[in-house]
Every structure is written in structure tokens, then in C-alpha cells.
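Newbie here. two chains, one complex. Structure please?
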Amino acid sequence: MNIQNELVGILAVWYREFKVFLREKSRIVGSIVTPVLWLLIFGGGLGSSVSISGLNYQAFIFPGILTQAVLFSSVFFGVYIVWDRKVDFLKEVLVAPISRTSIFIGKVVGGTTDALLQSLILLVIGWIFGYFGIIPGLHITIFSFFLAILVLFITTTSLVSIGLIVGSQMESPEGFQLISSFLIFPLFFLSGALFPINNLPAWLAPFTFLNPITYCVDALRNVILGTAQFSLAHDLVIMAIFTVVAIAVGTYSFKKMKV
Amino acid sequence: MFMPIIEIKNLTKKYNGLTAVDGLNLEVQEGEIFGLLGPNGAGKTTTLMMLTTLVKPTSGTALVGGFDIVKNPADVRRSIGIVFQDPSSDEILTGYENLKLHGMLYGMPAKLREERIKEVLELVELTERKNDLVKKYSGGMRRRLEMARGLMHHPKILFLDEPTLGLDPQTREHIWKYVDDLVQKEKITVIITTHYMDEADKLCDRLAIIDHGKISALDSPAKLKQVVGGDVVVLKTKNPNLENIKKLEFVKKIQTKDDIVSLTVTNAGEHLPEILAAIGKVESVEVHLPTLEDVFLHYTGRAIREASGEGGWAEKVMAFRAKK
């Protein structure tokens, strides 16, 4: 294995994903507008009668909505290889003289880039909403901004890997819609993105605490709002372990993937 | 002296007990255009996928460019180029970007990459369209782009999987010309799968007829056609007098299907009046030199169109229309 070739190969896969990302403008717009609608309309509507631990409800769900945005775009990014497979584009990449591990890494880096650019825009929008008092109590500082990006980076890496694992096992795009119902929405609802997790009913608590995304939301609340269930270190360690496992399983399933 | 550049040894692939490729043994010489000819589902594409390391054989192996497809897949991949049956370029990228991506995947330094992109774009006459999205290309242009891409890293062996499937006749002729020119210019070996007889006949130096995952015949198109052993006379008749025909010593072979009688005849032009006198009333007569279609029929007992899913279907539709 030639390390330099592998690195250029990773760059090649990333190059393609980034070009595609820039060309699919409607996808970028959608990935920004939907979270803003959640924040303003859902958050605004429910927030008129609910506030959580002294926080404005819209501010409270901002970290959750941020997580939701990257959750959807990262997982779908990964599952998207089903379409590469439907035409023979996936074969073209797999027949190149680089290892499947590099292809996997290139894909993960590509998906993470997309999701982080999206997060960046949403964080700036959040900052504007806070600064102009549209969402009272949302104060995003430079410091929290960078910490949030770090948390989101770890999270998206694992989520793109999960998407790629699912996509590499799917033979045709027919099951695509099921991904939202059986993977993304459960992860989202169980993460405490929309509610506090300190007083959950007994049947719900285990599911929430088993959901890795819970710790991403918690960490983001910690760095953006200064309120959290667990310490930042606790959340980050769990997310890091989850990410390492997801990448390991992803690499393995890519190696086993049939064309 | 020619050297085998591909040596296939007992190559076998089974899918859930179904044998797609059955103990294939074959040698391909350096610098030839070699065809794998057979109906859809005969195992051609599976063979190609194994030779290009995308599918692992169940048993057996092959040496491609001197490397073992099972033990050294990475080395094999470095020495081959392939144009897949289905479109394999990215529609959302431009032609140029597709080639750049390919160059990067094959670890080419930037300077060499740009040179090669220019070179192959000129070769397939797409220089002027290089900055258009592939989405806007016609089917033939897209195939040419993919062919350019397959050649960009100067492979020793180029695999073409049904290169003209679904293309119009004019574009097909163009593609054939490109392949022919390429072999002249680049001195590479080309392996082509096809179920088009004319394509195999026109392009290939040698070809293997594959049916049910096995080789039925292997030779140059000319020699294969000689095996048929004469001209082919096809007669359409309701009531053929086959007993009379059998008495004619210049009739080598008789095959009948429905109201079609197909005879293999030495010197058909000279003997046609005698045949017509012997067989009785006929609706139509056709005389031709043996084609690969006849060769396929000779070896497998079936017309390739019957054996191919789509072809058979189209024929049935035509037959249905004819009845009405």
C-alpha cells in the first residue's frame, strides 16, 4: 500500500463529494430552512407556554435543532451511496487502485465537511437570532462557537459512518424512506433534543440514555447554554467511543460490500 | 512472439448454488481484441467482474497482466482500465471533473494528470464539451468519456462491458472505430463482452462463445464461421419436403424451426435451383455467408436471440404483431 496514493485517493473522494455538495444548491437551502422553521415556528409556538429551567424554549431547543440538522444530513449523506451503486459509479471508485478503507474515509470526510458547513451557517443564524433578541437567552460566544463545532465534528463523523454502514448493506434504494422512520426519527426524538432529560418517565429513560445522540445534544447545551445533565468530558468520551466503533464497523462493512 | 497477458484458470463463480461461471480456462494474448460473446446471463459480465477484482471467484483464479486476481487485486487494478455496462460517470460533475477525479484515484501527479486529460479528451473528441455537466451529454458522448477515462492511466488491458449496448447504429460504428484506433495507437489488449454478433465479428481478433458459464467455441471470427461449413440457405415454407433435401449431397446440415428451414450448403449460388426444386413450394428464400449467428446456432443449438432475454421478447412482440 502506497500511503501517498491512499491520501490522494481520500482527497479524490472528498473532491467529488464537495463538488456535488456545491452543485446541489436546493439541498443546501433545504438543510438550512428546515431547522430555522423548527426553531422559529415549533419553538416559538410551544415556547409561548413553556420554558425550561428558566430558559426560553427556543433557546433551549437550539442545540437540539442543530443536532437534528446534522443528524439528517449526515445519515442521508451516507445512505446516498445506494444511488452510486444504482448506476455503476460506485464500481468506478471501487475498481481504482486504492483501498476500500481510503474510500470510506474520503466519504466520511466529505459528509463531515457538508454537515459542518451547514452547522456553521446555523450557528451564525443562531448568533444573529440571539444578538437581535429574536431568541432571548441565546448567546453564542466565539468560545462556545468553536466548542460546538468540535462536538458536531465528532458527532457527524459517527453519523456519516452509520449512514454508510446502512447504505453499504442496501442493495437498492427502495428502503430509503424507511431510514427516516426507523433510524433518524427515533434517534432524534430519543435524544432529548426537544425536552429536558433530567425527569424522564421510567420507560423512556433507558432508550434516551442508550442513544448516543443524547450526549451530543447534552454537550451542545453545555457549551452553548451552560446547562447540561452530564459533564462535557463525560459526553465527549461517550461520543468519541461511539465514533470509533462506528468508523470501525463502517470500514469493515465497506470491505465486505458487494458491488 | 505473443505472450498471454491474461491466463484464466478454472475460474468459477456460484451464486446461491447457481453456477454463473463454470470452470473457465482461457488465455488472451497481448495486443489482441478478445471478445466474450454470448446471450445475456451467459456469465460474461460475471467473468469480467472477477477479472477486474470486483467480484471474488468461488474457486479458480486468473493472472491479469501477470498478477493474481485473488492474491494481488491492487496490482491487477493498477494495470487495467474498465468501461462498465451501465453509465459510471458522475452526472453532477463535468466531463473534465470526472477525468480529474479518476486521475486522483489512480494517484497521478497533477502535471501528468492534466496532460493525460488533454490527451484522452482529444482522442474521444470531447475537448470542446469538457466543461459541460455529464448530465447534458448524449449516450454516445458519455460512453466515449468513460472510454477516455478507462484509458487515462495507460492501462495494459482495457475491459469493455457491452460497450455499445443501447446506442444507435451510427454511434456504435464510431465506438468500434475508436476501439480499433486505440489498439493501434496505444498497443493495449482489449477484452470486450457483447451479445451483438456484428460487433464481435467486426472488432475481435479472437472470440470465445460463452453459454451457461462455459466456453462453447474459441477462435477467430473467420475460422469460427468456416466451421459452419458452407453457405446458409434459409427457406420459409409450410410443407418442406425434407426427404428430398436429405438426398442432396451438397446439403451439409438441416435445421428446422416452425416454418423455417435452415440449410448449410456448399456453393449455395450454384445449387439453389436444385434445392428449390426439391423442397417444394416456398414463401421466401434467403442465402447468406455464415455469420456468427449461425456459428452460435451451430454450437449451442439455439439462436442467440432466443437465448437472450430481451431479444427473445422483442421477437415475440414482432411475431405477435405479424399474426395480427
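Moderator note: The first helix of chain A runs from residue 3 to 23. The mean pLDDT of chain A is 94. Thread marked as resolved.
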